[in-house]
């Protein structure tokens, strides 16, 4: 679900957030239109608006865990967690956490990757929100869901600042809701992906 579909359509904050995200052509490889949220972080108002929209949505949902996906989920997750009275749990790449971890491997377009979380960071029955900057195919987010569920958490929702509306990433999220603030700028995703309609 996009923020615009959740009663925020026409909200000037969404336009400001979208415009604050720099589009970098051909990064990290030719043909990619990279959605650079670091420029959003430099814009105090757009950054605050982004956090505020997420906080307004999750404040009364009984969430006790905000899990941030490395690395850009770390930029939004702690602020959201503090504002809603939840703990922040980093989901990291392999060999980045010093304690005992549980791991979840997932498939990428060319190869595999892995997310890890500290053992006992999440207690069984806790209600969790997963946050990242962008969702495309949903592979990383799906691995994050599996990792938290293996620890006994209930994943309430997944949230991203930017989402590709025509890629069915949410189909890989095991039925979990996906909340997205804005669509990417600078590219026609439908034609790039060969989608009609």
From TrEMBL:
Keyword Glycosyltransferase in annotation: yes
Taxonomic lineage of the native organism: Eukaryota, Viridiplantae, Streptophyta, Embryophyta, Tracheophyta
Family: Belongs to the purine/pyrimidine phosphoribosyltransferase family.
Intracellular or extracellular location(s): Cytoplasm
Assembly description: Homodimer.
Keyword Transferase: yes
Enzyme Commission numbers on file: 2.4.2.7
Catalytic activity: AMP + diphosphate = 5-phospho-alpha-D-ribose 1-diphosphate + adenine
Pathway the protein takes part in: Purine metabolism; AMP biosynthesis via salvage pathway; AMP from adenine: step 1/1
Organism: Erythroxylum novogranatense
Protein name: adenine phosphoribosyltransferase
Gene Ontology cellular-component annotations: cytosol
GO biological process, any: purine ribonucleoside salvage
MF terms in GO: adenine phosphoribosyltransferase activity
Gene3D superfamilies from the UniProt entry: 3.40.50.2020
Main localization of the protein described in the UniProt heading: cytoplasm
Domain Phosphoribosyltransferase, first and last residues per copy: 41-162
InterPro entries on file: Ade_phspho_trans, Adenine_PRTase, PRTase-like, PRTase_dom
Keywords: Cytoplasm, Glycosyltransferase, Purine salvage, Transferase
